[in-house]
């Protein structure tokens, strides 16, 4: 890239580093308060030798990462209590090494027994578990596996993988790492810019401090053009070095320093006075630790597809996807029983109502039997089907049928109620069972 | 990239081509029906020599594209009527060439006078205009400029740019191109895979057809291993070529064909019979045309920032952003008047209500005057501020103040109503004026 097209370009292997290098700005954005978390979603790139297994092993993949920055001594999450009682399949490093199987444990127990290093890590494990449940992953096929000591990344002090079982066995879909202060301290070291946070101390720390008063004229006379560098070297001595300087001058009348590879000898006459004192400080800087849940979006989607793919009991040719409305590509398919012109106004009125309720829909008015079109909707994972039939034309107020995909049951209801009923089902204000109870099962002329 | 890391990798300059090469699949997804549109959002890459001007000229930028496929003779959009009466600033190619200024025209007039080539293009121009209005772009600084004939891309038959005026003058933010059938026909030519749609003909087309019966033994004897290629060449002759073959054989007793660069002479004995007939066809294939609105997301955002940045009349130091709630990073800031412990339960109850209504919020409980914290919220473009003050503690039921950013006006209302009132303002069920009328202006102890 570049004007000469000769500069090599690099693609990031994770989104995390963008957050770390912006740490100062993010801290400022949070009013300089700890703890806080930053999130990012975007493509990352790895040079896979042989990309394969669908969305599982790609050179370019979508990642989402949360970097939760905390004080190293305060690894507590205030909302941990909301997930503490979730029981899930944990496969600790020691259970793996002892050839045991994963065991079902509550997060509270796992933290108490120090199976999971701290409750922030455990909090995110719990939240991911709830997230997977919400989008429709089969929780029987989810486990959380701790990294063995030898497989843990060099920067991490505890690592867990959320593994989901599907066509390719157990696959890591979300990673949880306590990266400690590795990233912030490494960036600070390499860039010279301190990526630190500050804490107020309740009891001040007492630190040793010193002042060195030089005879600059004497140094200048002796070392000429090197003097300036010698001044700044002597002024930036640590407390230990200052003690060494004083001791050496007192005992040997000389002290050697190395500046830019050259050795200079400082003698008594060059130093007027060294004084030592104590100082109380109320603010202390520290490198925050970071807890990082890292999501492979493609892998989660792939697992969701695998777990959602079903076959109708009565006919193994009929595949369907049991997507929850929140993940289904289309919420509702609208079907006129035939291509009769008279159905059109009803279709129009229904889709306008659906659009106003932000319910996504597709009209399927192809020349195919209603059963075939139900099957096609099922195959696309569409949760609901509305059918406009001949009774719609004669009923007053007009009624249509609503079919639920999982049960294939139908009810008959007024056109004006349809969008609200679907909305309530999506928002889980009502269950399908309750709707059936209210409207009664419909087994009319429209056969599925 | 690749196992040897020696394969060059290429980055796409637009997202569009991914849609074109998937045309067949998309058509199938739409039940083989035309017209339809596909959309995509993602990063595109251009090797800018000198990236500059904020988000305006980047090497990596976010793009969103709609590819609307239509029959070349049916460039009509059924929803055009919804935008036909919008009047906007059009700067046609001829007005530019004649040194005129842009003129305000309705889309209906522009289509009628053929200033805009067709009503699908005009439909999208109208929709983009409404979109920009919705997110808060100043429409006085928006114009639609037609490309001059010499600047039009080679593939396009009409092009318009939506230009937005800001710090860097008029900048192209959305492009509208009628790309005709350029992309689909080029991909078909290069790949050999036909990216076409089919139309039913009401009146059948009559086409000439022919059949050639070869003496394969005679050809085989003469041409040996080349025979197979000669067979397939002769069998795929067009109708015109078949006529030429028959005429030549009849008149000259020979016909020359070129296969893979070699010339072969076909003589009478090799062809048993050529018969010609007519056939009625009811289906015709065609290359769909495509209308493409293409959005530079970074440029739109940059313009939005520029148009939203305001200064308070009474104090030019006080900058604020007039983001509409649908684009504001945070909808609501929640402010305890001071750090008193007693305010906490109210803050908790308020943020829970906001979260339940999906209203994003931030609690700002730093040690700063309430006026400073209002100013900080304004600077971040936060539309609403809720303040918990001493009256909250004593009122029963508890009340808080709600401040609207644009007017800096406040009202006082019950905690239990706060989330619904904000929700109604976001959804534009009520205007702030109406809310003020209902609750009356509050000018209490909390000064801004």
Automatic annotation (TrEMBL), chains A, B:
EC number: 6.1.1.14
Keyword Coiled coil: no
A Pfam family this chain is assigned to: tRNA-synt_2b
InterPro entries documented for this protein: aa-tRNA-synt_IIb (IPR002314), aa-tRNA-synth_II (IPR006195), aa-tRNA-synth_II/BPL/LPL (IPR045864), Anticodon-bd (IPR004154), Anticodon-bd_dom_sf (IPR036621), Gly-tRNA_synthase/POLG2 (IPR027031), tRNA-synt_gly (IPR002315)
Annotated Aminoacyl-transfer RNA synthetases class-II family profile domain residues: 10-325
GO molecular-function terms, A-Z: ATP binding; glycine-tRNA ligase activity; transferase activity
Gene3D superfamilies: 3.30.720.200, Anticodon-binding domain, Bira Bifunctional Protein, Domain 2
Gene Ontology, cellular component aspect: mitochondrion
Keywords assigned: Aminoacyl-tRNA synthetase, ATP-binding, Cytoplasm, Ligase, Nucleotide-binding, Protein biosynthesis, Transferase
One GO-annotated biological process of the protein: mitochondrial glycyl-tRNA aminoacylation
Compartment(s): Cytoplasm
Subunit structure comment from the entry: Homodimer.
Family: Belongs to the class-II aminoacyl-tRNA synthetase family.
Cross-referenced PANTHER family: GLYCINE--TRNA LIGASE, GLYCYL-TRNA SYNTHETASE/DNA POLYMERASE SUBUNIT GAMMA-2
Protein name as it appears in the record: glycine--tRNA ligase
Species this chain originates from: Myxobolus squamalis (Myxosporean)
Lineage: Eukaryota, Metazoa, Cnidaria, Myxozoa, Myxosporea
